[in-house]
Amino acid sequence: MNAQWRAVARPDARLQAYDWAGLADELDAHGCAMLEALLSPKECMALARLYADDGRFRSRVVMGRHGFGRGEYRYFDYPLPDVVAELRGAAYPLLVPIANRWNASMGLAVRYPASHAEFIERCHAAGQRRPTPLLLQYGADDYNCLHQDLYGEHVFPLQLAILLSEPGRDFSGGEFVLTEQRPRMQSRVEVVPLRQGDAVLFAVHQRPVQGTRGSYRVNMRHGVSRVRSGHRHTLGIIFHDAT
CB burial class (10 A; 0-12, 13-18, 19+) of residue 107? Predict the structure, then answer.
């Protein structure tokens, strides 16, 4: 399926067209997987422009004030923009089999329901009622420290980030970075080469790795390296809500 077809199809149709068996293998092996050309350039630009619309968001975070890095981000308020809500609802059921398999492999009792609406009900019942999809904005010398997006008791173990700007044209530097910390080993780094409209699926907190004595848990963190010039925008889609 080509990128032009993806650009006009609904998010659920676009997502269904990817090789999910292959994506699951990538997530198992590396803790991340790319979905090329998930959004069109037009959609990316429209989402990036929303950053200036105060009425769309519940809060704004300036990273430097909290030691998170440099740059800023804004959490969307409900109702979410259509494309964000549709991507969140359509991606979740495709990720549930991976999430449940990971938890079983790591000896965790939590299992996730089939639909995102059911999972959000679980979050809201536990007091996690604030939406977590967000737009991030970086300028020259901005960066995002390595972190994990944990917002309460209920955490979905995978999330999605979509690059809305074009490397080499809109900005330079600013690579998406993952680190993995295995027990008694030094950290492993993964740099994901995103283009405008590309998405990366990645582990929020922990993922299982098969060892000689069975599966064990490894700790994952993600961030963005220093933007050297220009401006970079990203859409983050987190599937659990926040307290």
Answer: exposed
Q: Is the pTM of this model over 0.90?
A: yes
What are the structure tokens assigned to 103, written together? 């938890």
Range with the lowest mean pLDDT among 4-13, 75-84, 171-180?
4-13
Q: How far apart are CA 51 and CA 132, in angstroms?
A: 15
Kindly indicate whether the domain formed by 3-237 is annotated with CATH number 2.60.120.920: no
Q: What is the dihedral of CA 23, 204, 41, 227, to 10 degrees?
A: -120
The per-residue pLDDT for 11 is: 79
Residue 37 structure tokens: 């050309």
In Å, the largest CA–CA distance within the chain is 53
Q: Where are the domains of the chain?
A: 3-237
Q: The sheet that has 57-62: what strands, in order across it?
A: 32-35, 199-203, 158-163, 232-237, 134-138, 72-76, 57-62
Distance, in Å, from the CA atom of 46 to the CA atom of 138, rounded to the nearest integer, reads 17
Q: Provide the 10 A C-beta neighbour count for residue 11.
A: 21
Here the tokens at position 133 are: 């999809």
Residue 13 has a CB neighbour count (10 Å cut-off) of: 13
How far, in Å, CA of 178 to CA of 210, rounded? 19
